[in-house]
Predict the structure.
Amino acid sequence: MITKAEGMTSAFYCFIVNIPGKLFMKIRLAIFHLLILSILASAQEPVPKDTFDITSHAMQFPHHYKKWGFQVSAGLSMVKPPEDLLESAIQAPLANVHLTFGLPWKLSLESDLTTIIVSNQLRVGPRISFLVRNFGIKGGWDIAYVYGQLKQSGFNNSTQAWMHYPNISFGYKLKKMAFTLNGELAIVANVSTKSGEIEVSRSKTFLNGGTLTFYLEQRIHRNKVLIVGLKDNYVKFYWPTWMLFSTFNRFYHIPELYISWIL
């Protein structure tokens, strides 16, 4: 007994077998043409355009930051201490977190926290930026608070200081890369050093020197940007080592390598 399903299958087979040869060839040609058209259509579909521009993703390059926008980067600074302090200075990388907050009228607010546990600096200050085609310029003024304490081998030394950092940056950008040269002065407004509860010294306002930094910002993956900086600190007193009570009164060149990832 033949079931209904078997009957339908047999009828379909008979229909295929009885198709005239020319008609079968036409069907094959039609299917082939459809395949060719679909391949050509898919090949002509536009490839998604890479719209990445380093301007809106950079932090050090001077540009008009997005109003109320927020950027954060985290990284490390490797520093070579002065030879006079090499034996006693703690040689370890400085951890750094940098924040930028966009404001109206080409303004922004920047904050920077740098720490080596025993010595810490927090900076906050406004910026104003101007961008003309691929060139940018940015100026600002930071106020910083420094605190360091070293408890080791019976010593209990601490330092507190307030500093000012007037700064200016010049930048040039490509599509996926930006170059920035930053210069700043380091002005000590007030510094106090103590040994235990005894105040050892106190200094009022003086020019401590300045820094010159070259930054390279490069797109690494998707919209993520890596920052590499080379800095020359030309200063009398380098803030991470203040609690060591250095008595040398001369300027030092202190090189620094900075690597940061924009989150």
Summary: The longest helix spans residues 21-43. The two ends are 74 Å apart (CA to CA).
